[in-house]
Specification:
Elements (H helix, E strand, L loop, with lengths): L1 E7 L10 E8 L3 H17 L6 H42 L6 H28 L7 H7 L3 H10 L1
Antiparallel strand pairs: 1-2
Helix pairs in contact: 1-2
Length: 156
């Protein structure tokens, strides 16, 4: 922040307050400029009868330092607030449906149905592709008579 002050001495200075105005300012809001002018008025009234320009400038410098501190504090608070919001958003993204027995059983039924459908499609594709050959395990699982067929073959 920056401000340029212009002081004009009157004939009866220091028994009379000097004229002052804010010529230019940077990064100050209107209410900050108003506060600076009020501060100048107050300090000028308190220092009547004494040389006061240095006192007035010092008071304005302190006020500008306070404004800078307020801006820093506000920015830090905004940054913390954004971080908290981002953290909450992140929590919401990873927060899902709580698992209960009913939810799990419903999901399991749907999952099993999907797996069965995938197996059926795969079997149909294999049949269409001419891959009707079953593995030995699949043959034994389908026809339990094969369990004893080798023993009968060896006995003969």
């Amino acid at each position: 922040v920056q401000t340029t002050l212009k002081f004009t001495y009157r004939e009866k200075y220091p028994d009379e307050t000097p004229l002052y105005e804010v010529v230019s300012q940077e990064n100050l809001e209107d209410n900050d400029v108003t506060d600076i002018i009020k501060l100048l008025e107050q300090q000028a009234e308190e220092n009547l009868g004494m040389v006061m320009i240095f006192t007035l400038v010092s008071a304005v410098q302190e006020k500008l330092n306070e404004i800078v501190d307020q801006i820093k504090t506000r920015r830090e608070e905004e940054k913390k607030q954004k971080e908290l919001e981002a953290e909450e958003e992140e929590k919401q993204r990873f927060h899902g449906t709580p698992v209960t027995i009913e939810n799990f059983l419903n999901w399991k039924a749907k999952f099993d149905a999907e797996l069965l459908e995938i197996k059926r499609k795969k079997m149909k594709e294999e049949e269409q592709a001419g891959k009707n050959k079953l593995s030995g395990k699949q043959l034994f699982e389908m026809d339990h008579n094969l369990d004893t067929s080798d023993i009968q073959f060896l006995e003969e």
